[in-house]
Amino acid sequence: xxxxxxxxxxxxxxxxxxxxxxxxxxxxxxxxxxxxxxxxxxxxxxxxxxxxxxxxxxxxxxxxxxxxxxxxxxxxxxxxxxxxxxxxxxxxxxxxxxxxxxxxxxxxxxxxxxxxxxxxxxxxxxxxxxxxxxxxxxxxxxxxxxxxxxxxxxxxxxxxxxxxxxxxxxxxxxxxxxxxxxxxxxxxxxxxxxxxxxxxxxxxxxxxxxxxxxxxxxxxxxxxxxxxxxxxxxxxxxxxxxxxxxxxxxxxx
Length: 253
Prior knowledge:
Elements: H1 28-53, E1 54-56, E2 62-64, H2 68-88, H3 93-118, H4 122-143, H5 150-174, H6 188-217, H7 224-252
Helix pairs in contact: 1-3, 1-7, 2-3, 3-7, 4-6, 4-7, 5-6, 6-7
């Protein structure tokens, strides 16, 4: 069974879209190229948003304009809409995945500007750690140091589901003014929780690598390269946000 903690890449994603003709098959390099394109698109829109919301005050410090929250909300909602469309209409991925990347660029750019205005230098640290984690895990996976066994997949999927439930509970309770104690604070428990989430988000990359490799081996159609790239983007964005959140907690102490 091909299992992934990423909701975009589940065990039926490729098997229900098998290329019976053997033509225009999905390839690993094709997925890599499309992932690179989506990353460039995300960074471009994030950079544009950053320049629009960041200003320099009289003391020479970089500050974020109040309008950044509009970009954050718009990018987050728009990204969620196109993520859902991509999940339910995989054949549309060549169109919806780039739109998703652009919208998430608005969100990431505004979020990063907010974090940078509070803690100068934190964004560069978060970006470095995110891509460092990506390439380190990719190297470990390709060399065989990390293997996506069934028990490994089951554990990561279970942990990912648990984190999702905690976040959903936090969101729903927050609507009623109820806060879950400790996990969002900068105390040892809150930092420990964020570190755990970062580890699980990183391990989801291993599942994504394995899942995409299996898709290519099973002869998935060419357009599924876009879906595989989209799935990797979802995990990378989650990882970056969680690393940024962890660093903000550490800098708050």
